Amino acid sequence: MADFSTKRLPAAPDLAAPDGSDVRVLSGLGDGGMAHFQLAPGEVSTAVLHRTVEEIWFVLGGRGEMWRQQGDREEIVVLEAGVCLTIPLGTRFQFRSFGDEPLSAVAVTMPPWPGDDEAQTVDGTWDSTVP
Known about the structure:
The protein is mainly β. The chain contains no helices and 11 strands. β1 and β2 form a beta hairpin.
């Protein structure tokens, strides 16, 4: 049995995600981990797909859009506070931030993030603005 834990949102990002967003690592358990993602106003992430993990995102603030492609199915959804969405295994995705405030979300990754080789860069629908 895992010990329970408590953690506050760190003031500074812990790292940059493979998609270019800022990541603040939160808590996790054996079957999943949670993190806070933030993309600066006007920025466009790098398009990626995950090799072994799935994610559930909940948008906390800001405005933007997310593109997802799964086989022949493709869509762009509006991101704003209160929106929850899934990124199943093998889904190509990319997101961008509009307006004056950063786009921020928390996400659960299942299983926990395995490491640097997890995300594969793919062609997206917009030109990325992040390194």
